[in-house]
Write a structure and sequence with these properties.
This protein is of the alpha+beta class. The chain folds into five domains: about 60 residues; about 45 residues, no CATH class; about 90 residues, Pdz3 Domain (Roll); about 60 residues, SH3 type barrels (Roll), CATH 2.30.30; about 140 residues, P-loop containing nucleotide triphosphate hydrolases (Rossmann fold). The protein has 16 helices and 21 strands. The strands form five sheets. It has a six-stranded antiparallel sheet. A five-stranded parallel sheet has the order 13-18-12-19-20, with helices on both faces. The protein has a four-stranded antiparallel sheet with strand order 1-6-4-5. A hairpin with a 2-residue loop joins strand 16 and strand 17. It starts with a helix and ends in a 6-residue tail after the last strand.
Length: about 550
Amino acid sequence: MPSSSTSAFSCVRLHETLALLTSQLHPDANHKEDMVFLKDVFSERSLSYLMKIHEKLRQYERQSPTPVLHSASTLAEDVAEELQSGPMSAEEKELLHLLTSPHLKAVLSVHDTVAQKNFDPVLPPLPDDFEDELDEESVKIVRLVKNKEPLGATIRRDDSTGAVIVARIMKGGAADRSGLVHVGDELREVNGSSVMHKRPDEISQLLSQSQGSITLKIIPAIKDEDKLKESKVYMRALFDYTPLEDKATPCQEAGLPFKRGDILQVVSQGDQTWWQAKRVGDCNLRAGLIPSKQFQERRSFRLSRKDRRGSSGEANVSDQNDTEFLIYEEVTCYQQKPNERHRLVVLIGSLGARINELKQKVIAENPHRYAVAVPHTTRPKKSHEKEGVEYHFVTKQAFDADAENNKFIEYGVYKENLYGTSIEAIRSVQAKNKMCLVDVQPEALKALRTAEFKPYVIFVKPRIPESRRRRSATTSPGGGEHARITEEDLQEMRLSAQQIDQQYGHQVDRVLIKEDTASACAELRSILERLERETFWVPVSWVKA
């Protein structure tokens, strides 16, 4: 913010500029009316007054003023009354005229409101006849003050009685904060208007349109229900959810939108179909509705069954029991303890990511801190190689036996030789108090996501230009190496990244966009350093005893 002297100088220069503009405006034949209009505007004395008032207010604001008194309106009225009690001089008459003018009264009234911090609307008086219709002990009049936020309650029509019942109270909403509305209460009136013959959607619209104070006539639930204690359950969302696109939600305005990977605090699971939740990190304290795990699984099952239907119209149920529906994963905060083994760092990459090179460069810079799991192979050892350094050299029979006993996280064939990374090789690195880095195919994630390894998964993908015209024809994306990349190659890279994201993105903790090797290495180093000192969300099963 500029100093007062600078602001004053700017104001003076603005006056001078306007005066100069006014003197330079000479109407011509083509723009005569426009020039005349501008000249009149710049010449207005009111504009000059406004600029001076603005500058005075800016100077006053920088002083951080506090109210001298909280009842300026009352003081002005007392002074006016005192002036009228006797003969007045010309100055006193002018003062009385100022104090009784509507504009000054309004300014003083605003001053008192701000000074007293009295911003809430005034609730209307109770209706005189509200006791006539119902017994005084069976009816409850609730007055709430709300802004443009939803009331934070949903309603339903009772099938047997036709009564309008409060179905749920959203945690943190206006109704919940009041403590006066409860699940099971029967709603009779909203702002004096009966809801007995209105549809639930009409009532919801009436409630949402009510601003300021809102008066509800309620029949309390016959059976008092204990308030649900706020849950400390946290879930990682494994799918995207948009309430406005969900026709099944009881109230779209009360729905909580979220993206895959968001951490949700589920504050109520009292409803088997719709949970109440908040997004961790949101400043909004009001909970929203999300589909429960069971409800979303049923919906996903129905959709997948439709996808599996053949041309005969019959569902293929042979693999239904193997279907994994990605809904929520219960998580908790985790921070590595000083004497605890390091988390396993797993790198997966799409085409063109060159993650092995990235991994090797980071390890070479700090071999005492990071290491790779030494792989097994059946190929012959070369003269310069050492057992247990580059590879563990084993026979094909030994390799096959280990594979049969599930000792490898992944293995494959290259030039008729077998290669694989074993679980023991990872444990060997961790036993040396080093952080183990492995790069694997995404399919191996399922075997690695265990409480023992607590893997942190990094998805590396090269930055791929939208069009080949925007890049050098000989520069490959992601590494800076020189190799001719065709548009078909780029399309394969895009498709590879999309497929990995769709199938395995819910298991990824961090996406690393590789511009070039140097910057990618720097970002990877930063991630590894944070793993040792910061707190992360991990599945609850990883930290439970």
